[in-house]
Amino acid sequence: MTTLAEALAHCREALAGLTESPRLDAELLLCAAAGISRTTLMAWPERTLAADQRRRLQVLLARRSSGEPMAYILGQREFWDLTLRVGPGVLVPRPDTERLVEATLAALPVDAALTCVDLGTGSGAVACALARERPAWTLIAIEHAAPALAIAADNARRLGLGNLQLLRGDWLDAIAPRSLDAIVSNPPYVCADDPHLARGDLQHEPITALAAGADGLDAIRRIVADAPRCLRPGGWLALEHGWDQGPSVRALLHAAGLRDIRTQRDLAGHERVTSG
Ligand code: GLN
């Protein structure tokens, strides 16, 4: 017989040193394996686990121990106030990316019938959050990778977002000249030789969503170069980027003719979102 309390202690021990949050991960894996809520876990620690629940727990624990992201194992991740489906093939939405959503909501008129593109939408996190917050806007979510696009479509459908269209494509290639009011993106921006790419959660996430050339700026350069062609006069561009890329991204926006360039910081106080 194994109680929930014993199973929890076992999981915590197994994950100690392997993940950044062994306590939380252990709780969530146990709840998923047992099919219970965290409230139940806390309220009835003496409840016993059935054999199939124990077996499921071993499988989930092995996956997490190998570094697979929690969001892939649980099949979902909270972003903004949405629960999004995620899985291998899409970047796991990060809290820092909510800054991109906040900056966009703050910069553009609420009720105007704007057309806003989200480039490299992945799970659809940014586009879904914007579509939900701004029913008057039309969101076009563009993604190159078919598996990611399928997940984004599923998220848009589950959330009932009728003002969100999905498009398979390469950055802004399919966009007509001067047709957009806004372009937002959390593109890949990690340097290709960054050793973090081979470690921890990152090694399980799609490399095309993370790495962008020797200085990490390949995707951003491409977007910024094409944005002026696609934006209407007075249009707006906002990009997430690495903590040390603020000066380079501001310089790129400036060189492309964008004005009112500003950078917002993330939860850790690092430069994270630059717009113009
Ligand atoms: N912020 C992510 C990380 O460093 C990278 C996401 C991205 O490249 N868009 O884990």
Automatic annotation (TrEMBL):
S-adenosyl-L-methionine listed as a keyword: yes
Domain of life: Bacteria
CDD domains assigned to the protein according to its UniProt record, in alphabetical order: AdoMet_MTases
GO molecular function: nucleic acid binding; peptide chain release factor N(5)-glutamine methyltransferase activity
EC assignment: 2.1.1.297
Keyword hit for Disulfide bond: no
InterPro entries to which the protein is assigned, alphabetical: DNA_methylase_N6_adenine_CS, HemK-like, N5-glutamine_MTase, PrmC_N, RF_methyltr_PrmC, SAM-dependent_MTases_sf, Small_mtfrase_dom
Residues in Release factor glutamine methyltransferase N-terminal domain copies: 6-75
SUPFAM superfamilies: S-adenosyl-L-methionine-dependent methyltransferases
Catalytic activity: L-glutaminyl-[peptide chain release factor] + S-adenosyl-L-methionine = N(5)-methyl-L-glutaminyl-[peptide chain release factor] + S-adenosyl-L-homocysteine + H(+)
Positions contributing to S-adenosyl-L-methionine binding: 120-124, 143, 171, 186
Pfam entry (one): MTS
Domain Methyltransferase small, first and last residues per copy: 105-190
Annotated binding of substrate, by residue: 186-189
GO annotation, biological process: methylation
Keywords: Methyltransferase, S-adenosyl-L-methionine, Transferase
Known role: Methylates the class 1 translation termination release factors RF1/PrfA and RF2/PrfB on the glutamine residue of the universally conserved GGQ motif.
HAMAP family: RF_methyltr_PrmC
Protein family according to the UniProt entry: Belongs to the protein N5-glutamine methyltransferase family. PrmC subfamily.
Name recorded for this polypeptide: Release factor glutamine methyltransferase
Source species of the chain: Thiohalocapsa marina
Lineage: Bacteria, Pseudomonadati, Pseudomonadota, Gammaproteobacteria, Chromatiales
Gene name linked to the record: prmC
